[in-house]
Amino acid sequence: MVIIAWFFVYFLRGEEFSLTFTDRVFASYFPQILVFSTGVSIYLLFIFQVKSKFKWWKKLLILVIGFLVATAPFLLYHGYFQYQNGFWNRKIIDSKELYFNKLNSSEKIKIVEFELNQENKADTIHSKQITPYFELQNPVKIEKDENSNWKLK
Q: What's the angle, vertex CA 13, arms to CA 126 and CA 115, rounded to 5?
């Protein structure tokens, strides 16, 4: 059930969360992994509904209906979400570090160039690595401050 909920939260509200994967290659594969694991989870829910006291045709019917319902995440992703302007379709072209925090080396200000629907765009983001695998990214507007802890890269 957690994976099924994660599927809907990721594709419907995922843009609102600033947690991203540090490894951009894995981040590009993650939507497909999530879709597959959601389909498997749905099918497992139907498999667990099969009881030994059911007749063979009821068991078969539950498994066939479960297979058909388990294809819903695949149809949703490949039929709808894949063609939307969502964050999961961004392909990072280049990332340049502008500033780093001299008090906390895991905090950086970057310009990230990405491709979305054959358009190249750029974003200035504040990136804070929280583990080797995850980082928090938030849009930022750069302003000059004489007393800051940020240094030019």
A: 55
User: 141-150: which pairs have CB atoms within 8 A and are 24 or more residues apart?
Assistant: 142/98, 142/99, 142/109, 149/101, 149/102, 149/103, 150/99, 150/100, 150/101, 150/102, 150/109
30's tokens? 């993650």
- What pTM does this model have? 0.77
**Tokens representing 59?**
């068991």
Per-residue confidence in pLDDT tens, the chain, 153 aa: 899 999 999 988 888 888 888 888 888 889 999 999 999 999 999 999 888 888 889 889 999 999 999 999 999 998 888 888 777 778 888 888 888 888 888 888 888 888 877 788 888 888 898 888 999 888 888 777 776 777 776
d(CA 2, CA 119): 35
- State the burial class of residue 35 (Cβ atoms within 10 Å of its Cβ: 0-12, 13-18, 19+): buried
* 71 vs 106: CA distance, rounded Å: 41
CB 98 within 8 A of CB 111: yes
